Amino acid sequence: HQLAGKFEKISNVRGKGLLCAFDFPDKEMRDLFIQQGMQKNVMFLGCGNRTIRFRPALCMEEQHIDQGIAIMDDIISAL
Q1: Does a structural domain hold residue 32?
Q2: Which end of the chain offers a freer environment for a tag, N or C, measured as fewer CB atoms within 10 Å?
Q3: Which CA distances in Å does 15 have to 1, 4, 5, 30, 38?
Q4: 10 Å Cβ neighbour count for 30?
Q5: Which CATH number goes with the domain that contains 61?
Q6: Residue 20 belongs to a domain
Q7: CB 54 within 8 A of CB 15
Q8: Alpha carbon distance 52, 1 (integer Å)
Q9: What are phi and psi of 28, to 5 degrees?
């Protein structure tokens, strides 16, 4: 939800705990987000036509979540 208020490019943020998802306007933007994540050594999972979903290991530490959010912020800012 932290990024949803910052970027109009993402919508329909949903989930519970670490299991969450959000939508991009189209498949092309979603796929570019995934590609950019791989270049930064982060694997984002696509789902459906325009959705990104998260299913991280439940033993993740807060610092890893913060790093992931920072990387997502950088990628979405550049899209």
Answers
A1: yes
A2: N
A3: 10, 13, 16, 18, 23
A4: 23
A5: 3.90.1150.10
A6: yes
A7: yes
A8: 13
A9: -60, -45
Question: Residue 18 in contact with residue 58, Cβ under 8 Å?
Answer: yes
Contact partners, residue 17, CB within 8 Å, separation at least 6? none
Residue partners of 24: CB distance under 8 A and separation at least 6: 9, 10, 30, 33, 50, 51, 52
pLDDT higher at 17 or 72: 72
Q: Between the CA of residue 47 and those of 18, 31, 36, 39, 50, what are the distances in Å?
A: 16, 10, 17, 19, 7
What is the pLDDT of the chain when averaged over all its residues?
92
Domain span at residue 24 reads 11-78
The alpha-helical segments, DSSP class H, found in 1-79 are: 27-39, 62-78
CB 7 within 8 A of CB 13: no
pTM: 0.88
